[in-house]
Amino acid sequence: MKKNKELLWTILTFLIALLTISAVVGQSKELTFSAIGKLILDAKPGWIFLAALSMISYILLEGIALWILLRASGFRKTMGQSTTYAAADIYCSAITPSATGGQPVAAWFMRRDGIPTGYITAILMMYLVLHTFSTLTIAVLTPVIWPSVFAGFSILAKLLILLGAITITGLAVLFVMLLRMEKKIYRVGCRIIDWLTRKKIVKRDKYWKEKLADTLADYSKCVKEMFCREKIRPMLQVYGLNIAQRLCQTIIAPLVYAATGGVLRNMGRVFATQVFATIGSICVPIPGGMGVADYLLYNGLRVITDHEAALQLELLSRSFSFYATVLISMIIVLAGYISRRTYYFVQHLRKK
């Protein structure tokens, strides 16, 4: 059932991506796929290389952040394992209508690598909190540094951006509250188990309540360890890495703009436009914010450049910052899955 659901979201995401790209290309008679290919070939290779490097760094920085959180919790995992967790989070978040959609898959890999469920929950929740606060930090600073960029968006785009800002703020508050609400979570969990038992969906309710209590005990212990004075440094490191990760994704648009002959003094405005586009896409429950993120980025870029150039820049930027990133993450996830299945298969043969 779970695999069928993931397959359904993958197919749906592919269709949305195809429709989004077709819609962008369809807005221009000159913007054809052959013209896009020529544009990439004619682009300045140095800037394109930096854009590709930023794309790879986006995945690796999350891997490093998870590696630090795991070490702070007493789990010595390799960078390869942490990068797989990060890729799973990025890939599955992109193909589900939720920013947290990748966390269950990342948790599956962590569980296979011997990390207790309670610790997994706390580590991923802590990462999500710091990731949300880093997004909020950039969202607050951008209009302060480039106040005129927001004014260039249409009324609809401004509304989406404001809703996105409210959503980020609300999520930040909610996640912080959840980190300290293990008792309430336990009570809610017990009610759900009781309901499932009455419906005869779940048997052995005492077993599942004990399992929930053990998981939440690990969760609570991990959270308390994270908030102790000795762990301030790794928390600040992860927060800084999250900001760097967001910047790596956001800076791709200005780099592609420079690669395609853009004026360097406008790179800051392109950067701010990408920030606002990211914020606005958060409030809409669509996989990867596709369609909405594309609309907002184009809507802001058309103020800086003409219609054709804005469409080209939007499509190329999203190709690097989203589509290619998701593709690479998927490859890493498949490699991680195959390597683990192979390892356990070999271990099983040795036992025989």
Report the oligomer: single chain
End-to-end separation: 31 Å
Q: Tell me the structural class.
A: mainly alpha
Low-confidence stretches: 23-31
- How many DSSP H or I helices? 15
* Rg from Cα: 22 Å
What percentage of residues falls in helices of 4 or more residues? over 70%
Molecular shape? globular
Give the biggest beta sheet.
Answer: none
**Mean pLDDT across every amino acid position:** 80
| Secondary-structure element series | HHHHHHHHHHHHHHH
Beta content comes to: under 5%
Structure, explained:
It is a single chain. The longest helix is centred in the C-terminal third of the chain and has 45 residues, at 307-351. The chain has 15 helices and no strands. Helices cover 82% and strands 0% of the residues. The protein is mainly alpha-helical and 352 residues long. Residues 23-31 have low confidence and may be disordered. The chain starts with a helix and ends with a helix. α5 (103-112) packs antiparallel against α6.
